TrEMBL record:
The gene is gatC. It comes from the Bacteria. It is an enzyme of class 6 (ligase). One of its GO terms (molecular function) is glutaminyl-tRNA synthase (glutamine-hydrolyzing) activity. Belongs to the GatC family. Allows the formation of correctly charged Asn-tRNA(Asn) or Gln-tRNA(Gln) through the transamidation of misacylated Asp-tRNA(Asn) or Glu-tRNA(Gln) in organisms which lack either or both of asparaginyl-tRNA or glutaminyl-tRNA synthetases. The reaction takes place in the presence of glutamine and ATP through an activated phospho-Asp-tRNA(Asn) or phospho-Glu-tRNA(Gln). Pfam families: GatC (PF02686). One of its GO terms (biological process) is translation. Its EC number is 6.3.5.-. Heterotrimer of A, B and C subunits. The keyword Cytoplasm does not apply. Keywords: ATP-binding, Ligase, Nucleotide-binding, Protein biosynthesis, Transferase. It comes from Sphaerisporangium rubeum. This is Aspartyl/glutamyl-tRNA(Asn/Gln) amidotransferase subunit C. It catalyses: L-aspartyl-tRNA(Asn) + L-glutamine + ATP + H2O = L-asparaginyl-tRNA(Asn) + L-glutamate + ADP + phosphate + 2 H(+); L-glutamyl-tRNA(Gln) + L-glutamine + ATP + H2O = L-glutaminyl-tRNA(Gln) + L-glutamate + ADP + phosphate + H(+).
């Protein structure tokens, strides 16, 4: 007996805004049933004495510390720009939107 019914697949399809044919409902019900059975088998294997982990290898933070450093002023950054408007780079309009 299938744990997932056609009606449940149809309901999921409506929630997902998918249009499924009647044959697809039966097909996906069987597939979802197999997926649920596979997940249940994995849950049976999981043991309480194994600590949960998100990675097979330990990870370390590879980022440098966030430190303030000297940078360009807005005027220096815009000095060689081909076009500037209101202390910003002016670029051509690409979407034809009204400003």
């Amino acid at each position: 007996m299938s744990a997932i019914t056609r009606d449940e697949v149809a309901h999921l399809a409506r929630l997902s805004r998918l249009a499924l044919a009647d044959a697809e409902l039966d097909h996906y019900a069987a597939q979802l049933d197999q997926i649920i059975a596979a997940v249940a088998r994995v849950a049976e294997v999981a043991s309480g004495d194994i600590p949960p982990s998100s990675h097979a290898l330990p990870l370390t933070n590879v980022y440098r510390p966030d430190e303030a450093r000297p940078c360009l002023t807005p005027q220096e950054a815009l000095a060689m720009a081909p076009a500037v408007e209101d202390d910003r780079f002016r670029v051509p309009r690409i979407l034809g939107e009204e400003a």
